Structures are given as C-alpha cells and as structure tokens.
Amino acid sequence: MEEHKHRSERPPPRWLRPVEALIWVLIYGGLLAVILGVFLMKQGLSDAELLGWILLVKGGVAVVIGALMIWIRSRWK
User: Fold this and answer.
1) How many Å apart are CA 15 and CA 60, to the nearest integer?
2) Whether pLDDT at 11 is above 70
C-alpha cells in the first residue's frame, strides 16, 4: 500500500521567485520614492511640495506592503 504524501502548504517554487522579487522592488522602490519626496518637499515650491507629499505617502505605503509581504512569506511552511 502506498503512503499518502502530504502536500505542504508552501506554494510551488515557480511562485517564490516573483514574490520575493516583488517584495524587494516594493521596499527599495518605496524608499527611493520617500527620499525623492523629501527632496522635493525641501524645494519650497507649492507644486513640488505637493508632489513630494504624494511620493512620500505612496513610497511609505509601498515599504509597509513590502515589509508585510516579508512577514507573510516567513509564515509559509
């Protein structure tokens, strides 16, 4: 009688590389957007300041999503 192999909860290996690449793109791209946003906010122009705030917020959100994805990835078995 053949033993039943238990399927692990881990996604197939073909999914791992794109997920991990997306995590680091979100983190590093988000940090770059935050730095650019801070730089634009220091310029003192109203349009540049608005764009700086937008980049700062969206970059921060991207970093948080990337960090959350690292936490989720660490919970996969």
Assistant:
1) 25
2) no
| Burial class, 48, CB count within 10 angstroms (exposed 0-12 / middle 13-18 / buried 19+) | middle
Name the one residue in this structure whose structure tokens are 């919970």.
75
- Find the range with the poorest average confidence among 26-30, 42-46, 67-71: 42-46
pLDDT the model gives residue 13 = 72
For residues 20 and 9, give the distance between their C-alpha atoms in angstroms, rounded to a whole number.
Answer: 17
29 pLDDT higher than 60? yes
What CA–CA distance (Å, rounded) separates 4 from 23? 34
Here the tokens at position 12 are 């197939």
Contacts of 41 (CB under 8 A, 6+ apart): 48, 49, 52, 53, 56
